[in-house]
């Protein structure tokens, strides 16, 4: 027979459902991005049916995370982790598509419409805003804003490749400093003198303790080094690139950072 206590239990069940609803709402940006990107990967597979295994294999960790979503235990962290994992390999898929020639560039254009650079920058900005004050001392938010504004001017043709490379590399250096400081501050005890930066050790310290995050972070070092070198050479005008290539380098780096901020344990930076 139902009694007074059952009224409270019924309310608890409703509140539990509210919590699930709220968590899904908070994760809606990630879920939309995952849905759209997976749909894009299906189109790539359809266009290159002989290479489906090669296309899908890098997505294994991302798909495992998504397949493990459970409504009653789902959190925005799950969606963020899956998104970071997927974005960490998206550049490789675009390179694969480009290697088959311009007749497939419509896939690249569609991918860029799904993952708008300015939207990713805004989401990165929001992530960094939540970082604690000691990680903000070199003003990464200002550096990111300047790079975003420079990109807009570059697209309008009012600044050079060198100018854009200088601004985005300035942010890259500051952001790497944020990651290095967060890594050092995560140690117990905190070292009085910080060691030299190390991407593998930073990854070990900051990557989420979830499926594949550490591996993805470690693998991203080669992309980090490649982009840093490219921006350095272009800023010094010792490397010349066409407009398409400069645009691709900038977008690749933004996706690279977007993957990082979703693969790291934000609790260590808050």
Structure description:
Helices cover 71% and strands 0% of the residues. The model has no long low-confidence stretch (mean pLDDT 94). It has 14 helices and no strands. The chain is mostly helical and 270 residues long. Helix 10 (161-185) runs antiparallel to helix 13 (221-235). It has two domains: 1-115, no CATH class; 116-270.
Largest sheet: none
Structural domains: how many: 2
The sequence of SSEs as H and E is HHHHHHHHHHHHHH
Oligomer: single chain
The tally of strands reads 0
Count of alpha and pi helical runs: 14
**Overall SS class:** mainly alpha
Contiguous low-pLDDT stretches (5 residues minimum) are none
Task: Round the mean pLDDT to the nearest integer and report it.
Answer: 94
| Principal-axes shape call | globular
Share of residues in helices:
over 70%
- Beta fraction: under 5%
Whole-Å distance between the termini?
49 Å
The radius of gyration computed from the alpha-carbon positions, rounded to a whole number of angstroms, is 21 Å
């Amino acid at each position: 027979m139902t009694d007074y206590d059952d009224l409270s239990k019924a309310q608890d069940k409703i509140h539990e459902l509210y919590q699930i609803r709220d968590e899904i709402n908070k994760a809606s940006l990630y879920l939309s991005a995952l849905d759209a990107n997976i749909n894009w990967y299906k189109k790539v597979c359809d266009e290159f049916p002989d290479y489906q295994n090669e296309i899908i294999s890098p997505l294994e960790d991302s798909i495992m995370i998504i397949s493990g979503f459970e409504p009653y235990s789902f959190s925005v962290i799950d969606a963020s982790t899956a998104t970071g994992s997927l974005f960490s390999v998206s550049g490789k898929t675009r390179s694969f598509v480009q290697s088959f020639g311009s007749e497939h560039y419509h896939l690249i254009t569609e991918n860029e419409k799904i993952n708008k650079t300015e939207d990713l920058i805004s989401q990165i900005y929001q992530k960094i805003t939540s970082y604690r004050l000691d990680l903000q001392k070199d003003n990464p938010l200002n550096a990111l804003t300047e790079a975003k504004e420079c990109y807009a001017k570059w697209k309008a043709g009012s600044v050079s490749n060198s100018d854009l490379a200088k601004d985005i590399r300035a942010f890259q250096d500051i952001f790497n400093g944020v990651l290095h400081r967060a890594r050092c501050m995560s140690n117990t005890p905190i070292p009085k003198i910080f060691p030299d930066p190390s991407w593998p050790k930073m990854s070990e310290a900051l990557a989420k303790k979830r499926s594949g995050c550490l591996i993805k972070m470690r693998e991203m070092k080669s992309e980090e080094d490649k982009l840093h070198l490219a921006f350095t050479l272009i800023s010094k005008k010792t490397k010349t690139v066409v407009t398409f290539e400069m645009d691709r380098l900038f977008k690749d780096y933004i996706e690279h950072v977007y993957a990082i901020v979703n693969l790291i344990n934000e609790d260590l930076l808050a």
